[in-house]
Amino acid sequence: MSVLEQLKSELKQIAYLRATASLLHWDQETHMPTDGGTARADMIALVESLMHERFVGDGVRGPLGELVNLDTGDPDTGLDDETATLVHEVWRDYHRAAALPGDFVMEYSRVTARAQQVWAQARKDNDFNAFAPLLETIVNLKHKEVEYLGKKDTAYDTLLDEYEPGMTSAEVTRLFDAVKARLVPLIQKITDSKVDTHQELLKRFYPEDKQWQFGLSILKDMGYDLNRGRQDKSAHPFTIDMHPTDVRITTRIDEHDFLSGFSSTVHEGGHGLYEQGLDPAWFGTPFAQAISYGIHESQSRLWENLVGLSKPFWRHYYPKLQAIFPENLKSVDLESFYRAINTVKPTLIRVDADEATYTTICTSCYGLKSRKWLSTTTCP
Known about the structure:
2 domains
């Protein structure tokens, strides 16, 4: 077995551990009993710790060190372009992981897993104070992570690089300022217009089971393969992958807000299509992972907004929706429905924001990065 094949074999085994942790996370947010949170956090922490230990161990370090300079990440000059790119990307992940002590990885995994359960209950109870202590602990741990990794120009840059490789806060500021200069006045103009888009159309009673079936039919038409995935319900919609043949999405349904469940389903379906489209032959390597969170989000937002809110889409699907909810929509024409779902209205809840104000939420969050709890995190 060549050195490269040794490396890929070890990475695949580590990916199976990651998939196990993902499955534990998925169950925690979908079907786990409420009182299982503390034990589940311990389970997740153990698996994450084992994964980290193996990734920074000899099984990766040995073959990787024969293919790249472990100090700089420069690939061996004799490698072809594909292999050189692959091993450099592996090195990026290895270099970052090797900087983190094992006990830190276990602590961070346990705290964040436990925080998920506490957050879900706090959200249900509308009780921020119940979640605040764990949030503070997580922020402190992120500060510690920056210390281990080494601060770049800003602490934010150190953590941003994990999600958007090569991006800097200075570049984000430049991009956001350009968008903000034109977008904020546009939103103000829309708000001042006082046009009534009849939002009440979407706030009528839409039974959950009918919304669910309609959403599944849309997912199938999008191409999301339910033989290699599934949809469940969770407090916050998400997509999680175990393998390109096992990609799971969740949604949340509000019986008095049709757009919330529909948009979540289409949005996560976009994420799911990205993951199902990865090549299983490269499983365990960076070539079977998202190139960046920004690219991943672009696919979900494309489906949610450019497709799911478009008039051609609803010319086809609106008669079907009217047939499912005749008591709500039989007397509502397509144009009125189309205007209702494309309402521009500021909100503090990112996942419920329209495509115009969604961006202003992100720019506002970034503008507040000097505050301690936002100084080392990506947009919440």
